[in-house]
Structures are given as C-alpha cells and as structure tokens.
Design a protein that fits this description.
This protein is an all-alpha fold. It is built from 13 helices and two strands. This is Helix-turn-helix domain-containing protein.
C-alpha cells in the first residue's frame, strides 16, 4: 500500500472513530457529499485539503501523519516456524490469541494464572517471533493484518482440531448472539466459489467490528469466536451406507 493510500485510510478511520460521516464532513467544509466520496475513493487529496478536513473534524493532523508513517505492510498469516513455536508452548499461544484480541498486559494477568513477569516474558518471545512489536510500558502493536488467518492445515489449525473443536461444539449455542447451523447443499463449483468469497467477506466484517468495538470499555465486550468451515464432505457413517 502506498503512502497516500495509507494516509487516507488512517484519516478515514479517524473520521469513523469520531462519528463523522461524509455528509457531516461535506457540510462542515462546504463541499458536496459526492465530491467527498470521490476524493476518498480516488485517493486524491492535497495537503491543504487534508489540513482543512482535520480542522473541521477536530482531528490532529499530526496524529494522522504519524499513524500513517508508523503503518507498515502486515502479513495475513504467520510462517510455519512461527506457528510451530506457538503450539509448542500453550501459554505462548494463549498470550498470542490475547494479543490478537488486543488485550492489555493487565487484562491477561487479571484473567489468567500468569504472573506479570511471566506474561512480559511471553510478550518478549512474541516480539522475537515477529508476531507483535513490543513498545515501552509493555504495550504492543500487532505485526499481522486485520485479515489475519491461521495457515490452512497448519500447526495451529491442527492443534485446534485436536484440542479445541470438541470443546467448542460442546456448548448449547443458545446464548445472546450465538448460533449454530449445519446446512447441506448441492452446488456447482461456481456457486461454491461464490459462497467461499462471501465467507471471506464475513470474516472481513468480523474484523471491522472487532476493530471498531475496541473503543468500548472492556465490560461492554465479550469474547466471541466465529468457526466457519465449508467443503465438499459427507459424514463417514453415511458414506459407509452408500451402495
């Protein structure tokens, strides 16, 4: 992603965080809403226009420039070496998953039987592996993108299948916001590819909500896990009954 693209993405995120819509912004700087949308869509904005928008929105232009400068391309997956290191130490995997959920050190220590020095040591190990970048005061930033996913059939997925899936499906799925569906269908390959793309869109939407809800107090958020699988498959017991 180029620097102008990153700059406008950061500005768009800041406007969203401030609750400012394109229409509201258009009214404040005396432009049409369509012109605002076109300016962001074409990623064409002068520095003077950037300053005007920041001033109208009450956003520090210096913060936008700094965030864009600090941003860097991030990986959508870890490497095989990184995932092997995580599954070799369940506590390291736990802290890695907490980091993916943007937990603070204090939240990890308060929630799990981890001492503060132990948790800091695990954060240091995640920094060494390149999963996070550890900052002063034990804060961190992720080195993976919002579209992050585990390697297909990689060490973490295999670990989850062996140790997590049964526990996950043991629940009744009857809580607020919970659902469980198993829907068989006969589809063409084109339809299957279309649905697979929609599943990726759903994952992106989950990432967006996760990112936006980080602004809420911890007491207003709960841990949810989306587990999605889609493949050509028949239950082996049913296959055994085929003629």
């Amino acid at each position: 992603m180029s620097s102008p693209d990153m700059l406008l993405d950061v500005l768009r995120a800041e406007l969203r965080a401030a609750g400012i819509t394109y229409k509201m912004l258009a009214d404040r700087i005396a432009m049409s809403e369509s012109s605002i949308k076109r300016m962001f869509g074409q990623k064409d904005m002068t520095l003077s226009r950037l300053a005007q928008i920041c001033q109208a929105a009450g956003i520090a232009m210096e913060d936008v420039l700094r965030r864009a400068a600090d941003a860097r391309p991030q990986a959508d997956t870890l490497t095989l070496v990184q995932e092997n290191a995580l599954v070799a130490n369940p506590r390291l995997l736990l802290v890695a998953i907490c980091c993916l959920g943007h937990w603070s050190l204090e939240q990890m220590v308060e929630t799990y039987r981890l001492t503060e020095p132990e948790c800091i040591g695990l954060l240091v190990e995640l920094d060494r592996l390149g999963v996070i970048e550890l900052k002063p005061l034990n804060r961190y930033t992720l080195r993976v993108s919002n579209a992050f996913r585990w390697l297909p059939d990689g060490p973490v997925q295999r670990f989850f299948r062996a140790h997590v899936v049964e526990d996950y499906f043991a629940g009744p799925f009857d809580g607020a916001g919970e659902t469980l569906m198993c829907l068989p269908a006969r589809l063409s390959h084109a339809s299957a590819a279309e649905l697979s793309e929609k599943i990726h869109q759903l994952a992106a939407e989950l990432a967006r909500m996760h990112r936006n809800d980080r602004r809420l107090p911890p007491r207003e958020r709960d841990g949810f896990t989306l587990l999605v699988g889609f493949r050509s498959w028949e239950f082996s017991a049913f296959t055994a009954l085929r003629r």
